[in-house]
Task: structure prediction
Amino acid sequence: MSAVDHASDEQLLADHLAGTPGAYDVLVARHAEDLFSFFHRFVGNASAAEDLVQETLLQVHLAAGSFDPARAFKPWLYTIAANKGRDYLRARGRRPVQSLDVGGSDAESPSPGSLLAASTVPADEELDAERRAESVRAVIASMPESQRLMLVLGYYQKLPYAEIADILGIPVGTVKSRLHAAVTQFAKQWLARTQSAAQES
Amino acid sequence: MSESPERVFDPRLLDLHLGNLSQAEQQVLRQELAADPVLTAQHTALTQVFQALALASAGSMPGDLPARTMARVQAAGPPPRVVRPRDRLTAAVEARGERVLRLGGNLRDVVAIAALIVLAVGLGVPSMLHMRDRQQRLGCSLNLARLGSAVQQYASAFGGSLPFAGWSQGSSWQPRPEPGIQTVPNRRHVYPLLRLAFIPDPRLLVCPSQQHVPMPLDEVRRCDDFLEARNLSYPYQNMAGVRPSAKDDPRLPIMSDENPLFADGVPLFDARRFVRTNPAAANSLAHGGAGQNILTLLGEVRWTTTPLVGIDRDSIWTLSGVTEYRGYEGPSCATDSHLLK
Result:
């Protein structure tokens, strides 16, 4: 393993700017998979996620000279990635809504409070693991773009609150409250979906 | 979503699931979980929500994606060098074969540079001041948000009570000359947040826009009150009367920027003399009189351009129906805000 493999992201980008061969390869290898997961969950489409990973890392390459070395690399990377993802969704003209069987509107859905009042989410033995995973993905896809982004960054990408705040340009307190709202929204829609599936079966 | 998420589950449970709590915070929360069935039910439901979220694994990345990405990067050529304005100016001057600084240019150059300076000062200074004010206002709101979280943690630990340092009939929250009257400034009720480490840093109690001084950290344990009024920028709900609890109206303002009508508990006005203008409608002076940050019982912080934001649209600076203050007046109900230091 070479010294390049141990270098920090910021150092790798500086080395890449200075023309060090292989530096950017390491950076790409280090982040491509995480970026793919991020885009796959955010835009809900694997082939689009592939394109967006490439476009993001190409953009990082082209904008490397403007990177502020005083900042951390990862929030900068995800700032670019989030913008690419939003641009893609807007270019498509709609967010990747998958039709829900039930509970599309707030009025028809149970309140978040009922989730807790029930204290347990109905177990649905009939649904196998893949169907349940598909159900979760459908709920995530149906969430508003900003909440889905918050859920992906905060839960799936495991980014700290401070980094999410940096990426989205909002205070840490706002990150917490939006993530809270996103989890609540997911719980509400998922409960509606699983309850409906249980009734149908 | 019509329902406020804060009412659905305790925000600390989210931190617990995301691994954002310290060991000590986890320990406190787990003790509360063992004792509080409502919190336990929230925890159980949230655990199931996260189990569901974990089901949605992302697809596998194609193995050749990094190689394809690198091919596009290499096709784009080396990263462009960013030419900063300074570089362009230097290059332009060098191209003309002139020195960058030269005494005695022609009149047109001098006038152009002077005009640029005037323009830069005219546009830049107000812009910088505006930006500084916004940053201070934001810093202030972050402080209040942290205080709101500390108040909620305090209430959780003390059966729903808001921070309170005691009060007796012989007390006054303003200095009184009469013998036998004990002065208990209202700010003393905020002190337990600091002493019991619900607030880890005394600087959180100081608004960035105020010339205030944080309480020295090494004095915190030795004292039972702030050393001086300037150790706290934010007035707190008057605890001399009916004290609100965490279960009262969540919209109740409980802290804010500096009250412009009281200094160290002493009213700066006589309400009976102001018949044409309403002093209670004056904004805090902490942010230039433009408005004030308000912290509600729910823990929300918002910027308001009027202090008439009590539950009944009354002023948060004064008690309802009280025009003369001798230091022992307090709210007659749990929905009357009177924010005081």
